Structures are given as structure tokens and as C-alpha cells.
Amino acid sequence: MSVPGSGGSGNDNSSLPHELSSKTQFLNLKLYVFIAILLTCAALVSVLVFLCLCLSKKKSTNRKMRVKHSSGSIPLVSKEIVEIEDLGRRENIEKLEGKFVKEAEIVVVDDIEVGKKKSSGEEETDDVSAVKSSDVSADIGWGRWYSLRELEIATCGFTEENVIGEGGYGVVYRGVLNDGSVVAVKNLLNNKGQAEKEFKVEVEAIGKVKHKNLVGLIGYCAEGSQRMLVYEYVENGNLEQWLHGDVGPVSPLTWDIRMKIAVGTAKGLAYLHEGLEPKVVHRDVKSSNILLNKNWNPKVSDFGLAKLLGSEASYVTTRVMGTFGYVSPEYASTGMLNEGSDVYSFGVLLMELITGRSPIDYSRPAGEMNLVDWFKGMVASRRGEEIVDPLIEVQPPSRALKRALLVCLRCIDLDAHKRPKMGQIVHMLEADDFPFRAEHRPPREREPHSSHEAVPDKVPYPTKHTGVEDAERLRRR
Ligand SMILES: Nc1ncnc2c1ncn2[C@@H]1O[C@H](COP(=O)(O)OP(=O)(O)OP(=O)(O)O)[C@@H](O)[C@H]1O
């Protein structure tokens, strides 16, 4: 085959226009050869520029990002949060290659009853079989190992548009897997020192914990120095956004929805404390760690990042990990940590649900900045009805309000041993006749082991420290 300009026959040149076959002064090349070289150079430069742009975009995702992602209907809590549009990435992602799997072995347990795992092979979907045959190492029993590449594809290269938010543990991205399922990918900070083996052991412990009121961990990624956790995506934002964001004059969180959130959260924590061995103390119960689905069902997040505890001993940590305003006094002062610390934080969270106020709010008058102190003072002055969130349109029934107030007071007892257990709190919040039924009975009928007792016998009554008089007075009214 003769190549134009390669010094072939004169017939080749004669077929070209005279100008093209004439020689240029530069290097004595034929004009069309010169043009071909120029075009090739231009194409190369374009490719290089494109590659540079891609690289710089990727780098920008590695820096600390402050953009938060939420669906358009989720209220924003601070100016750091900006709304972004759903970019319809799913269509693009579906075109990309990758191996994905539907969650195979998630076992959702109801309350604190541990469900049975599906035996392997039972009710397997096509997707699961595909992965088992093609990528056996990906299936890790409770969830999945994900490659960095898979998560890159799912999050469109960890782009800013996919950032949901940023917490103490790292940046959280929204991702869409190849099968269309949506996940939250937490890119952990400060993980360089952690060996892959240790990381896997810790993650395994978290991944096996499944409960309808706990955000499920569905997999992880450990490649090089990268450590990521892949969670089920909870679509309706977090409780902090709904309580303290701009929701207009009437909150969509009615009294009943708030109590549903309180009970669900209590069930999730009860499972951590009472349904697992070794038990798990959350250590950071707060409204931003309560995620909500579209039916306002709460799911407690970040629980797995707490330490696993032995069943008997309390655990002493060297630094207090919780969040200001929620931390129990004994944990703050001694670092002594047990599930009672979570109960205290839950009490503060319940106050937040009832009042719509933040645990610490410096914009309020001096006597109202600290929610716990203000709350106790209001209840002591019999002004319980006045503390209900003004954004709740329909006021709660008096009995329901008193029940919730009393549970708060018991949870924040300064004596951690006198606080109720989370399981007891679930019963207290759900029992229609708590605390009213007990007070009409003569003392002997309230002996332990009465099967009709609405309140579990072990539930301690509030002590002086938390204003036992207030609570007792409240109970009698
Ligand atoms: N599984 C999830 N589904 C949907 N959104 C999530 C999920 N996990 C976290 N988020 C959101 O990502 C954001 C950051 O979460 P993260 O738990 O990292 O931090 P935080 O709870 O705000 O703070 P901290 O780390 O101090 O507890 C929050 O807005 C949270 O609502």
C-alpha cells in the first residue's frame, strides 16, 4: 500500500492539488505532511488537557469538603449546608462497568429478638449467584467487600455533588450501585495507621449488627491507605435538620411522629445494650445521628464506631467522645462509660424532641441556654405544658406529655445506676397507662412480678438529684 507523501510513485503526487504537494520551507516537507503533523500535535495536546482536567477534579474531592447534600425537601440546619439537585446519575452509572450485588445476607431483626440467618443458597437472587460465581472474595458473610473502583463508579468519582455531609469520622457520599441501590459511603479520615486486618475485625463486628432502627452497614472497602464504610442510604435526612432547620411555621414532626421517633430510637439503643454480647455503648447519641426514612422511622447511625464492651465492666476512656450538651455528667468528669451514659443522652434527645430546642443554645437568654437545666426548672414550676415545641400544631394529650416528661427526668438522673435501661424506656414510652396506673393502686398491689404491671418492676423512680419531687408531683397530677 502506498502512503501519500512517503516518497511513492509520481502518480500519488499527481492526484493531489499542486499546493498540497508543493514543499514547505520548514524542514523541506510537503505541505500535506506538514498539515498532518500539525493535526496530530493538536489532537495530542487536547488529550493531555482533558487528562489534566480529570486529575485536578479528582484531587479536589480529597480535600475537606463542607458541602452537604440533601434532597430538596429536607430542611437545612446551617449555612454550611447547600441544596444540590439530583443529577440523574443513575442513568450514567448504569452504563458503567462493574460487579455489584444486592445485599445478600442482611437479617433485619425486630426489636431485640435476633433473627435467623438465611442458610446459604436459600432464596438467593440472581445477582447474588452472579457474584458468588464471579467474585467469591466479595461476599463476606454479613455484607460485601467493595473495591475502590466500584465505589468510585457509584459516587461518580467522589465528586462534590455527591457529598451528603461531613462528620467527625470523615466525608459521607451518596452512591448508586450498579444494581440501582442507593448507598451512603463514609470515607474515613485518619485511617492511615490502621492495618487492614484490624480494620476488618472491627468492621465485621459492626456489620453483623442488624436492626430496623439501626443504620445497616452493608460493606466496606480497604485498599491501600483508603478505608471506607458502605451503609444503607436513609433518604429523609437527620433529626437535627427536621428539629432545628427551617421548616416554616408548622413542623411536619407532629407529636405522634416525635414519639414514634423516640420509641424507635430507644429500640435501636436497647438492641445495642441488651440484645448483643458483648454489648455496645453508642457514646454519641444525638439528633444528627438519628436518620429518618420516608415514613419517619428512625435509624441510629454511627453506632458501630463506638467501642465494644465486655458485659460486666464499665469502660474507662482516656478522652470523652460524645457531643457537648448530650454527655452525661459522670462520663464528662471521669471518662467512666457504660450504657447509662447513652440513657442520659437519650433523655436529652427526648427533651429536644418535646421542646424543639437544642441542648445548648447560646442565642437564648442566660437561664435557657442549657436545655436540661431549663427543662428541670420548668417542670419543677409546673409549667410542663409551656415547654412543648411551638411548631407542633396540635398539642399533645396531657397524659402523653406527662409520660414523656417523666421519662426525660428519669433518664437524666445524676445517679447513673438509677436511670432506667433502654428496654424499660421503650415500655414506659409505649405504655398508655404509664405512670398513671401505678399511682391508683395500693402499695401491696404493686409488688414485683405482677404480670399486669405496665411499668417493669425494675424501673427506678427519679431521685432527688433530678428533682424527684417534680417527677412525683407530675406523676400524681
Ligand atoms: N446512611 C446514611 N444515609 C443518609 N445520610 C447519611 C448516612 N450516614 C450519614 N449520613 C449523613 O451524612 C452526614 C454526615 O454524617 P456523619 O455521621 O459522618 O456525621 P455527623 O453525625 O453529622 O457528625 P459526627 O461525626 O460528629 O457524629 C449527616 O448529615 C448525615 O445525616
UniProtKB/TrEMBL annotation:
UniProt keyword annotations, A-Z: ATP-binding, Kinase, Membrane, Nucleotide-binding, Phosphoprotein, Serine/threonine-protein kinase, Transferase, Transmembrane, Transmembrane helix
Record-annotated Protein kinase domain positions: 158-437
Membrane association type: Single-pass membrane protein
Primary site of residence: membrane
UniProt-listed SMART domains: S_TKc
GO CC terms, sorted: membrane
Native species: Dipteronia dyeriana
A single MF term (Gene Ontology): protein serine/threonine kinase activity
PROSITE patterns reported for this sequence: PROTEIN_KINASE_ATP, PROTEIN_KINASE_DOM, PROTEIN_KINASE_ST
Protein name: non-specific serine/threonine protein kinase
